[in-house]
């Protein structure tokens, strides 16, 4: 069973023990049937694996004996399994509905769908509290849903209606929700990483300087970004500073092997992204991102490390997007056999199979969850359709938090509130 | 129109120095200034500070002291304010603006960053998203170009993109514009670049009073503020009144100041050029031209009301700025006046700006590339139709 073969203690191996002598256990052939993963491992075989960084494999999907033998103890409880299942199905059905709505003209602009990557969002975000923050990229619908933003708010935002989570002003790529601590939705790749690092800095600052502590530990921030971002300067700058200041952040790389049409292998000198963590002194972990239980195990440890104040972790999730980069992407460069290979590793199908095999729930219970999600998403579309467009007056609102732009006065209130503050100019 | 959020009430200011004479000294902040004016070490040197007599005459402080005391007071009043940047801590600030703050507030609140503008500016923005009030110092604003994505896309646009959910109470400050002989990559003026962006407030102080008042207003402000200082002004002294030295003093944003009243021609300027404009006004006065000098203070929001009111009075306008002429501040001011007060103009608007070239290094070329007092005088005379020769392109 996955839980038995994975020991989180390996995360905590001291950075100093970097002799390179001990190599991490190789990935079992059954699990990593992806030829691409094999290419990566072959390419990386020359480099001695550092003790703090190791590859975690998924035994879940392989039908091998070891997995079945160890499968007597499920990794999750029934409630947890159903929660994970529901969240992943919500992500999938929602994104499929987005595609439909886009082709019907209700949604417009740039829309980037998350189909296939649900295990990463669900596996990580479902372990977070309300006070923990999530920072994402333009592929952020499902991160928003996992963090708790209602489906109808997200759908209305995509339709550009006034009832959206950002009142229609952000759009698909800029989902913000202060009550859920979803700090965006950024269009520039790499832009969210420093912002997430800053939110983690704020969490640590609050704990140490302002002395506002929570009984759980530090509030954790999660930064999600892709393989292409890992070649960007800001990524390295933040790995450095996060480790330097031991910030409570988890850097999650959703390596879906493609940055629009640029293959990760064509763009990156060393494609094994998890190895970049140890260069900065933090653990780097590779995990099968199509397996939500595996992701969850790794996430648990990374989040707990951050909460305890031990600093950041870099987690590379090998995953895949079933659709193109965006709805405007003809997706001609990816080979069909690669797509079918990953379609066979669909995280939702895998979890469903696991739940049924482990007798955590019956097929009909899962079907009823799927039906419930269908209803939720349909209702979200109806809600978004029926919602009004933003009023014209909304165009000029919210440029500043300060209502008239005159700043704060000596007594601490906005100057424009002071009845004596006139339109005249200040004289010498 | 959305409601103002409950305004932050700031606690009453904490006396800055714990020196024994503080309770006797009616202006505890001046004690700190006296100490700053001395060479280090500080602390128990209260007795060593020379006794100053506080007569009715105004006290003089440098812009550097003004900024330092403003930072000190705001950090003292609000524990969520912190300073980050290169060399702000142990080096006491690249230009000594943050002198003494590391000792006072510790490394948690005065952070020396690695040389990673994009990274640490983004970290500041993220911290501001999440409830802190960072002050990000750029060693010069030229380096802000490495971080401009965060200033504009993450900071300026966030309140709008999130429909008011995420406000970004951050201050980006540092020296802007030309220094002396530092070459093309260290001399650009960024006022026009940042003032172009909705969602940013852009402030440019001139005197010590402006520096103190505007920096305090910027730190208290709930929006991102770009605070453009000037390296050559840091060492200049200006007289300040007791009100300015009070720790609750702050100036409004979006309001210009009339530095000198006049009736024949309006000269607008900001930052170092205000000093030049005042000198030009003195020269013009000897020739019988009474110039009104407006210190813009706030580039965005621009105090169009003040500029237009002045032009309606004088009917002539000269705009002065240090930066490149094309798409500069003067162009915006001219258009604002054309839109609102066209019938009042008796002469074309004159624009004085830096030369349309990257800043040269040679001292004589640099002098030609930056506006000088003579250029302003000539422009004012042209606006008053007193020049013998029609306008030629200034250097």
Give a description of the structure.
- Chain B: It catalyses: N(6)-[(R)-lipoyl]-L-lysyl-[protein] + pyruvate + H(+) = N(6)-[(R)-S(8)-acetyldihydrolipoyl]-L-lysyl-[protein] + CO2.
- The complex is a heterodimer of chains A (428) and B (395).
- Chain A is an alpha/beta fold and 428 residues long.
- In chain A, 39% of the residues lie in helices and 9% in strands.
- Chain A is built from 15 helices and eleven strands.
- In chain A, the strands form three sheets. A six-stranded parallel β-sheet of chain A has the order 1-9-10-6-5-2, sandwiched between helices.
- In chain A, strand 7 (258-259) and strand 8 (262-263) form a beta hairpin.
- In chain A, helix 4 packs across helix 15 (363-386).
- Chain A is globular.
- Chain B has 395 residues and is α/β, with parallel strands linked by helices.
- Chain B has two domains: 61-245, Thiamin diphosphate (ThDP)-binding fold, Pyr/PP domains (Rossmann fold); 257-384, Rossmann fold (3-Layer(aba) Sandwich).
- In chain B, the strands form three sheets. Chain B has a seven-stranded mixed β-sheet with strand order 3-2-4-5-7-6-12, with helices on both faces. Chain B has a five-stranded mixed β-sheet with strand order 9-11-10-13-14, sandwiched between helices. Chain B has a two-stranded antiparallel sheet with strand order 1-8.
- In chain B, helix 4 (117-129) packs parallel to helix 5 (148-156).
- The longest helix of chain B is centred in the N-terminal third of the chain and has 15 residues, at 63-77.
- Chain B is globular and about 60 Å long.
């Amino acid at each position: 069973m996955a839980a038995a073969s994975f020991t989180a203690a390996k995360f905590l191996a001291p950075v100093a023990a970097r002799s390179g002598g001990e190599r991490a256990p190789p990935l079992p052939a059954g699990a990593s049937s992806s030829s691409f993963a094999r290419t990566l491992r072959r390419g990386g075989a020359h480099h001695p694996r550092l003790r703090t960084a190791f590859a975690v494999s998924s035994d879940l999907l392989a039908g091998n004996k070891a997995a079945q033998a160890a499968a007597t103890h499920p990794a999750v409880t029934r409630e947890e399994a159903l929660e994970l299942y529901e969240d992943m199905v919500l992500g999938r059905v929602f994104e499929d509905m987005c595609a439909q709505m886009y082709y019907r003209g209700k949604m417009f602009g740039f829309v980037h769908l998350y189909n296939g990557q649900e295990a990463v969002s669900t596996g990580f975000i479902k372990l977070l509290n309300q006070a923990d923050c999530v920072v994402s990229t333009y592929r952020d619908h499902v991160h928003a849903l996992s963090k708790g933003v209602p489906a109808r708010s997200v759908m209305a935002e995509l339709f550009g209606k006034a009832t959206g989570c950002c009142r229609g002003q952000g759009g698909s790529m800029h989902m913000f929700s202060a009550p859920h601590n979803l700090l965006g939705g950024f269009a520039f790749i790499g832009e969210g990483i420093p912002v997430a690092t800053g939110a983690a800095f704020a969490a640590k600052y609050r704990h140490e300087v302002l002395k506002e502590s929570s009984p759980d530990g530090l509030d954790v921030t999660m930064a999600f970004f892709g393989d292409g971002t890992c070649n960007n300067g800001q990524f390295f700058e933040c790995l450095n500073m996060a480790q330097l200041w031991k910030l409570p952040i988890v850097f999650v790389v959703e390596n879906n092997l493609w940055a629009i049409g640029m293959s990760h292998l064509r763009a990156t000198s060393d494609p094994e992204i998890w190895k970049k963590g140890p260069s900065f002194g933090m653990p780097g972990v590779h995990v099968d991102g199509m397996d939500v239980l595996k992701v969850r195990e790794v996430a648990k440890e990374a989040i707990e490390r951050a909460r305890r104040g031990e600093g950041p972790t870099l987690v590379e999730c090998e995953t895949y997007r079933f659709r193109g980069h965006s709805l405007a992407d003809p997706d001609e460069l990816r080979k069909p056999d690669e797509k079918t290979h990953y379609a066979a590793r669909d995280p939702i199908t895998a979890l469903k199979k696991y739940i049924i095999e482990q007798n955590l729930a019956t097929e009909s219970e899962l079907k009823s969850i799927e039906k419930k999600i269908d209803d939720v998403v349909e209702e979200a579309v109806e809600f978004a359709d029926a919602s009004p467009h933003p009023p014209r007056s909304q165009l000029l609102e919210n440029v500043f938090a300060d209502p008239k732009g005159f700043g704060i006065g000596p007594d601490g209130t906005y100057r424009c509130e002071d009845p004596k503050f006139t339109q005249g100019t200040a004289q010498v | 129109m959305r409601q103002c959020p409950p305004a932050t009430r700031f606690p009453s200011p904490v006396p800055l120095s714990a020196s024994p004479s503080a309770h006797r000294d009616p202006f505890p902040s001046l004690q700190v200034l006296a100490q700053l004016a001395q060479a280090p070490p500080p602390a128990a040197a209260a007795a060593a500070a020379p006794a100053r007599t506080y007569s009715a005459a105004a006290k003089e402080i440098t812009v550097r002291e003004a900024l330092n005391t403003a930072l000190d007071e705001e950090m003292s009043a609000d524990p969520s304010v912190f300073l980050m940047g290169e060399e702000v801590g142990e080096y006491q600030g690249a230009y000594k603006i943050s002198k003494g703050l590391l000792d006072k507030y510790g490394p948690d609140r005065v952070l020396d960053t690695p040389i990673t503008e994009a990274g640490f500016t983004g970290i500041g923005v993220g911290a501001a998203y999440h409830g802190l009030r960072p002050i990000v110092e750029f060693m010069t604003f030229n380096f802000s170009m490495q971080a401009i994505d965060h200033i504009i896309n993450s900071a300026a646009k966030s309140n709008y993109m999130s429909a008011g959910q995420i406000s970004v109470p951050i201050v980006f400050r540092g020296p802007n514009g030309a220094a002396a002989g530092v070459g093309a990559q260290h001399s650009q003026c960024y006022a026009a670049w940042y003032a172009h962006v909705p969602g940013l407030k852009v402030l440019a102080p001139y005197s010590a009073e402006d520096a103190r008042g505007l920096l305090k207003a910027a730190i208290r402000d709930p929006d991102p503020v770009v605070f453009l200082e000037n390296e050559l002004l840091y060492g200049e002294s200006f007289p300040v009144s007791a009100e300015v030295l009070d720790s609750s003093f702050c100036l409004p944003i979006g309001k210009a100041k009339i530095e000198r009243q006049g009736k024949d021609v309006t000269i607008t300027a900001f930052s170092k050029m205000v000093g030049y404009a005042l000198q030009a006004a003195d020269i013009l006065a000897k020739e019988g031209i009474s110039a009104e000098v407006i210190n813009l203070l706030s580039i965005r929001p621009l105090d169009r009301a003040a500029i237009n009111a002045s032009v309606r009075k004088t009917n002539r306008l000269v705009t002065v700025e240090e930066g490149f002429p094309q798409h500069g501040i003067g162009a915006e001011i001219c258009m604002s006046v054309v839109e609102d007060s066209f019938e009042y103009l008796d002469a074309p608007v004159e624009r004085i700006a830096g030369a349309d070239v990257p800043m040269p290094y040679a001292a004589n070329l640099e002098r030609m590339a930056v506006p000088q007092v003579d250029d302003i005088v000539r422009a004012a005379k042209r606006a008053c139709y007193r020049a013998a020769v029609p306008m030629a392109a200034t250097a």
